[in-house]
């Protein structure tokens, strides 16, 4: 497929633009080229434990300047979901301040006591304490409904594989005896809709670029958006070739975008 | 039923002998009377986060002197189970030092790294950290089998209902994708067998006294031991009367034992 017909790029962050604290080689230049050509962009992450301001700073530290309104984290989309569907709700957070910041920005009230919360919002919490688990448990026992930024089971950390939101969710669901009502993260339609809304474009004019078959490529396929898998993160070429629902294209990394865009220009 | 035919008393601790840090009125005197009459006793708790030495000290602080060998906690029985069925195993603990002490006393080795463990032992951990959850997760991902001291979902704490071992188990099982292989706690046959072994008596000469229909009374019924429910803990008289599998007797508290034993003497 040609990139000429693509006006909007939905770009995954972790494993596509950066890995840990390091930018993936060529990612910065590809993003700059897209911007110079007037392409629209939105950057997606299933991370719900940071705010857009924190993510903006992280990208800036790698020399990549992306305005906060082009960043869509699950914290952002969770906050918007509550604001749109349950305005005026009081929320209790099992997670760090990054998520609280996004909720407050979207106008969601934070309950003073777990017992007062209408929603328990769960995300990855790397500073988790037993007291916080109990507060979340008591929110649900007192009637709070459960929404999770995502339900990934684990992620690669600096010192090995780490428990992700799935672990925090399970601890609450198993003890409070209530299921999760909404999961926001990729590959959900909610994340695709939010991305298309930022771009202001229909699905057929867009392309999803990401490193995960299960979240990025699935998100694109379900929403009718073309997909490119990059091999700079969790998936291999073999994964892509043997996947029941594979991507439209496979690239070594986001750097390949430069050749494709320049190639297109060269043909002109 | 008469207590004349009872030679061994299997007595639950939490809700029967004490509640929090307070002895239940009359419990101390009933235990003293049993001892003066030469009755054999064993004290049971589903707690797996403390050692017998810690429990002995707790009882002593209430004026109740029970030798450590008459105390059976799930930490004790878990340690014995591993020692008997999987001698020489290396264990990793998700829990506090009380459980580690019991494992070491039973001759179980503690793995130096989670990756080396053959068993992950899970119990209530009130000082839980995210780093410890990840270590437990990595033990299982590297092949450790899971054993839990108990799988209670919650318990009444000083400041409200608290998440019990069930929450810790769920966080690991949901993310590591492996089920728990053994649960030691009441009403399991393992706890009943361990209690009868301490008493050195057959089931028909014993009586289980406890405050929980689901754990204490069930333990007795399954093992063919008579049962007395005390109303000083979690169950009410209505619970006892409407239970599909109720107790043989219902007492207000352990204090009632004194009247029954004295009554028996009076008839003689």
TrEMBL record, chains A, B:
Gene3D superfamilies: HAD superfamily/HAD-like. Mg(2+) binds at residues 12, 14, 211. GO terms for cellular component: cytoplasm. Substrate binds at residue 186. It is an enzyme of class 3 (hydrolase). GO terms for molecular function: metal ion binding; phosphatase activity. InterPro entries: HAD-like_sf, HAD-SF_hydro_IIA, HAD_sf. Divalent metal ions. Mg(2+) is the most effective. Pfam families: Hydrolase_6, Hydrolase_like. Coiled coil: none annotated. Its EC number is 3.1.3.-. Keywords: Magnesium, Metal-binding. The active site is at 12 (nucleophile), 14 (proton donor). Its cofactor is Mg(2+). Belongs to the HAD-like hydrolase superfamily. NagD family. Catalyzes the dephosphorylation of 2-6 carbon acid sugars in vitro. This is Acid sugar phosphatase. It comes from Paenibacillus rhizosphaerae.
């Amino acid at each position: 497929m040609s990139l000429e017909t693509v006006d909007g790029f939905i770009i995954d962050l972790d494993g596509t633009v950066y890995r840990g604290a390091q930018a993936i080689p060529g990612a910065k230049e590809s993003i700059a080229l897209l911007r110079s050509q007037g392409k629209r962009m939105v950057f997606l992450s299933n991370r719900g434990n940071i705010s857009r301001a924190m993510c903006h700073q992280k990208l800036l530290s790698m020399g990549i300047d992306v305005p906060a309104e082009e960043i869509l984290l699950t914290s952002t989309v969770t906050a918007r979901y509550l604001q749109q569907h349950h305005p005026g709700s009081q929320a209790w957070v099992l997670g760090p301040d990054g998520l609280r910041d996004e909720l407050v920005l979207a106008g969601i009230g934070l309950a003073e006591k777990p017992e007062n919360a209408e929603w328990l919002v769960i995300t990855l919490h790397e500073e988790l304490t037993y007291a916080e688990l109990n507060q979340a448990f008591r929110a649900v026992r007192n009637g709070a409904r459960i929404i999770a930024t995502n339900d990934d089971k684990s992620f690669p950390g600096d010192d090995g594989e780490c428990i992700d939101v799935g672990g925090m969710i399970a601890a609450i669901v198993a003890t409070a005896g209530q299921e999760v009502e909404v999961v926001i993260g990729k590959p959900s339609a909610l994340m695709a809709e939010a991305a298309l809304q930022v771009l202001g474009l229909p699905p057929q004019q867009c392309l999803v670029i990401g490193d995960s078959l299960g979240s990025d490529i699935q998100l694109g396929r379900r929403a009718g958006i073309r997909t490119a898998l990059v091999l700079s993160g969790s998936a291999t070429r073999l994964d892509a070739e043997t996947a029941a629902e594979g991507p439209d294209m496979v690239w070594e990394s986001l750097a390949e975008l430069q050749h494709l865009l320049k190639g297109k220009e060269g043909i002109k």
